[in-house]
Design a protein that fits this description.
- Helix content is 76%, strand content 0%.
- Helix 1 packs antiparallel against helix 2.
- The radius of gyration is 21 Å and the shape is elongated.
Length: 91
Amino acid sequence: MEYNQAYERVNQLKKFYKSLLWFGIITVFVFGNKLFKDGEIKISFFSGSIFLMVWAIILTIKAVKLFIFNSEWERKTLEDELKKDKKPINF
């Protein structure tokens, strides 16, 4: 991995971990506020739960892209496709 790719990957990881930290802080605030006020946690559309659910889905997608489908996987798949023997189509 060359320097520019490594630098970009570190930036992506940094942004992901920052988003994860903010998600945790906001989640504790939202659910802590509900727990403090009502004594229980209820998931409702207007109380921020849907917002947190959408945010969690986005973070999950980012995590999959960063940790599962990373540049090594992409490079390896590209090399595998280039190595395949392409046969001409006969009519």
